[in-house]
Amino acid sequence: MGNRGSKPGTGRSPSATQGQQRNQRGRATATAAVTVPKDTAKAYDALCDRLKEVSVLGGISGLLGWDEMVMMPPGAADSRGAQKSALAGVLYDKKTDPVLGQLLDALKAAPPGALDPYQAAVVRDAGKQFIKDTALPKELAQRIAKLESDAYAAWVKAKTASDFSLFAPFLKEWVEVNKEKARLIDPSLPPYDVLLDDYEKGLTSARLDEVFAQVREGLVPLIAAIKTRGRAIEDKWMDGDYDLDKQAELCKKIALDIGFDTDHGRLDVSVHPFTGGAHPTDVRMTTRFKKHSLLEGITGAIHETGHALYEQGRNLKYDGLPVNAALSMGVHESQSLLWERMVGLGRPFAAYLLPLLKERFPDKFGAASAEQLYEGENKIAQPSLIRVESDEVTYPLHIILRYELERGLMDGSVNVDDIPKLWNERMEAYLGDRPPSDAMGCLQDVHWSAGLFGYFPTYSLGAMYATQIYAAASKAIPDLEAKIQAGDFKPLKAWLNEQIHSLGSLHASGDELMTHVTGGPLDPSVFLAYLTKKYTDLYKL
Amino acid sequence: MGNRGSKPGTGRSPSATQGQQRNQRGRATATAAVTVPKDTAKAYDALCDRLKEVSVLGGISGLLGWDEMVMMPPGAADSRGAQKSALAGVLYDKKTDPVLGQLLDALKAAPPGALDPYQAAVVRDAGKQFIKDTALPKELAQRIAKLESDAYAAWVKAKTASDFSLFAPFLKEWVEVNKEKARLIDPSLPPYDVLLDDYEKGLTSARLDEVFAQVREGLVPLIAAIKTRGRAIEDKWMDGDYDLDKQAELCKKIALDIGFDTDHGRLDVSVHPFTGGAHPTDVRMTTRFKKHSLLEGITGAIHETGHALYEQGRNLKYDGLPVNAALSMGVHESQSLLWERMVGLGRPFAAYLLPLLKERFPDKFGAASAEQLYEGENKIAQPSLIRVESDEVTYPLHIILRYELERGLMDGSVNVDDIPKLWNERMEAYLGDRPPSDAMGCLQDVHWSAGLFGYFPTYSLGAMYATQIYAAASKAIPDLEAKIQAGDFKPLKAWLNEQIHSLGSLHASGDELMTHVTGGPLDPSVFLAYLTKKYTDLYKL
């Protein structure tokens, strides 16, 4: 029996490796004096070296997160925490290095035309990020870190007891802390706008007020009409047990058909589906399957594939630079929702999907028609009080409700103590139903316990962007829906790669990107027209 | 159909996370002035903070390596390279920080008794490592990095052409470079000893000369006797196809029976079996199975389990400190070989294994006896010219041959150009057979192309340590072999945990550890007695 050459490391590094490290760095320690080059091109290169290093280390952080969710043994949580913290410390040092600030200052002062549009976008976004990274004094940063854990614990307790008053003091502190943070980052803007920019670059609350008012006015009557005048849709026939292995195999086939690239990514199963990874060439997507929820597994897989295609579609010419990052949370969500809803829940896709279902689940789908599948997929079970269980028609109102409240908290027009009352009143006004408890109402979501004001809107921005993008794609790609029906998703993927994915963060806002792609800024009337047409037809209103 | 909350990051970090990072660090940048505490306890704590940070970041590096071998999609190789390089750069900066050197200088000057034995070992090993990490000037480090790739490419070419002369110039440069490196690290020692210390702490070539001479003199006649007078052993009956899933399931059962802890580790399959991971609580072990090689899969799994138990057995009281690292490559190998050979290839284990084989592979093992299994497992197929295909009797001579040559290269008594001639002569003298080509001879192993002089001996040191440790365990644990036969591996694992694993690098050398565990230093006569007894009996010499 032969010996094997395998040996784990001993914690000592052979000198050859050390040599390689030193060679790769070529500098002694972080304390060495650095001067900012006077030449714009050289300064830009020096900036890019630093930004790319941060991006690469951030990629490692992404891998640690994926591994933690998908692979890590349960007893390694503490050591993983220490690893994430140490790497965050390294990243913090790199991101707040004063030399980075000096390079950015020099480049912001560069003569017009010295930088091409991609380079200008790098300086613009890196400059904004540097201000955010360096704005907070240590005391405030520590207060935020403590509040994150304290408020989470309080939210868990309050939700369990269904008693908002247990959470109220922490939400009050988040309001104060977020106001202070926003003031330090940019005192010239409304505080809520500063927070919003973290998730949806370039968006203002004034713009969002207009957009969401229009959505609200369009949806409230549509929901009421479905509720009062909609026909009954039969979907009970799809209930039942679906073999998990067959679900996984089917969803992998769908992801690959749509265009997920396993040379540059992995598909795994995790408790919560997500798309993460370490790099556009290393995208880790996960799905989840439940025996009783075939459609949830399928739409979840399509949704994550949409996120993954955005990640895999970046332009590696700008690898590691801010201009190559996702433009915003909303734009990211537009990619997942375009595939999930515009494609995956449409009639042509039902025609593509049905034979795959018949093959795997003949007992259930042997006699079904594509129209029956389409109807079952799109049935609105019951306008739900719970956001994460809601359908595409009621979902935006959940978001608008939260937006109105968190925006009010930040501008002082809403008091924390009034949240439960306001929540219940508006839920009744928007969805025609009143939550029976705080747990089912204003305590249902975790986001506020983490101080995330400005995050919720991106869900609905993504849904709206998706309808506009799909409309533009339908014009640009001949016979798009016939291609979808035939399972040929390549033209749509290629168009998205070119129009959206490869552009990364070149544009300064979602509005700018929409103008580039669709000829006009975000336009809620497209979203409303889509929903009205689809559900008027489906429910024969 | 509900929306999902899953969203990949956008490359932007919400400020709350930044706050946490800053909070966890509590310092501005790496350029802040640092003073070395005068108080020994405080200086020691400051040292430990830095060493632990390096250890944690090194753990991340371990995870990147594991992921690359087991999980990473093929198209991510470049981005993974960039990640490893960036992290290596960070580690290099941390490991060569002058403040670390100042802390070590202060602690080396601490009054006797100011540090307990574990603390003293931390300062001893960290001090040695700091010298190694800072010894090489940039030019030499760059030369080494270049030589690593050039020499590897030349070795591949030379091996393919079976022509040593193509590789000779690179080996000459490695000799020069390694001499220079050794001189920079410690000019007071023979250069080979400086290199050896990277892999086998505290060992000298003078000591190794004695040890290996004794082994050589004992083994050459034993091998000749087996070859000329040994009886034929029947093992053809085990040939055949073994279902891979059944092999994997069996090997997992064996690893768990032996004591691998899946709360603090994972078992996966990879192209080359190895044990790695990120932390003693996160040990990643891999195995490999071939349809035609049942025994190779089983012994491989046992071997890696031995490595993994050493990793999982560390004393977390000293987590992240050098004293808690593996003592040496040789000691690591002693743990894998103890389980693989002393346990896994012994008669009691064959009695434990046989029913498991009968259950899974009744066609092959239904009629077999434990003695037949034992004989089949231990048959020496043919003294092999290839190291990695060799058995435990001939293997040490492969190592000794390489040791003699690389030691001769370093002290000037061997010329690079004479290597093929010397190799072939000694192979004939030691194993009674002459390689038909350089590819089957002196070019067979990759190690020299990476400049790894001093690495080979650790394989055989591990085998020798293992026999001594097993002898000590047999005295300390009543009825050890009866317990093994019954599949009760807990007492042996617990004894190793206490005697070896939890001590980490406390001792200054393998000799010191052996003295602690077995009452005396490394003693090749124990190894020789074990082999002579086992094979005299097996081959009825």
TrEMBL record, chains A, B:
The protein's name: Carboxypeptidase Taq
GO terms, molecular function: metallocarboxypeptidase activity
UniProt cross-references to PROSITE patterns, sorted A to Z: PEPTIDASE_M32 (PS52034)
Residues the record marks as active site: E304
Source organism of this protein record: Edaphochlamys debaryana
Gene3D superfamilies: 1.10.1370.30
PANTHER family with a match to the protein in the record: CARBOXYPEPTIDASE 1, METAL-DEPENDENT CARBOXYPEPTIDASE
GO biological process terms, semicolon-separated: proteolysis
Cleaved signal peptide residues: none
Matches recorded under Pfam families: Peptidase_M32 (PF02074)
Ranges annotated as biased composition (Polar residues): 12-23
